[in-house]
Amino acid sequence: MDTNTKRFLTFIALLSLLFILGDIFVWINLTNQYTNPATLSKRYLEQYPSAVRNAQGLGILPLILLVFASLVFIRSVKTNFFKVVAATIATVLALVIIWKMYYLI
Predict the structure, then answer these.
(1) Is the pLDDT of residue 9 over 80?
(2) How far is CA 56 from CA 34, 41, 72, 84, in A?
(3) Which residues contact 55 (CB under 8 A, 6 or more apart)?
(4) Domain of 86?
(5) What is the dihedral of CA 102, 40, 17, 84, to 10 degrees?
(6) Nearest partner of 98 among 64, 44, 56, 59, judged by Cα
(7) Confidence band for 105, pLDDT divided at 50, 70 and 90
(8) Domain count, the chain
(9) CB of 22 within 8 A of CB of 16?
């Protein structure tokens, strides 16, 4: 791959990671406000446009974006230490997303 393609993939992976972190931030913020799971799910879905308001889709989309971002970051890093760090961060984020999916659905 040429340099422009690598930069573009890294930029898209970074945007994906920012979306994932924003989604987790919204979910954690709402869990601090609401204790009833039905109300929490309703308020969580209200944070997104009506075209994408689907609890199952909003649970799976961050996982897909996380897999993409993880693969791009792990392949772009040269040293093994940073590959392990990227994989560890991806694992922690995946566990948080799965926990969110279990709680919302």
Answers:
(1) yes
(2) 20, 11, 25, 30
(3) 41, 44, 45, 104, 105
(4) 3-104
(5) -40
(6) 59
(7) low
(8) 1
(9) no
11-70 pLDDT per residue, tens:
999 999 999 999 999 989 999 999 888 898 899 889 988 888 887 888 888 889 989 998
Instruction: Read off the amino acid at residue 104.
Output: L
Q: What is the pLDDT of residue 18?
A: 94
- The type of residue at 50 is S
Instruction: Enumerate residues 6+ apart whose C-beta is below 8 A from 47.
Output: 26, 30
Expressed in percent and rounded to 5, the helix, strand and coil fractions of the chain are 85, 0, 15
pLDDT of 103 > 80? The answer is no
8, amino acid identity: F
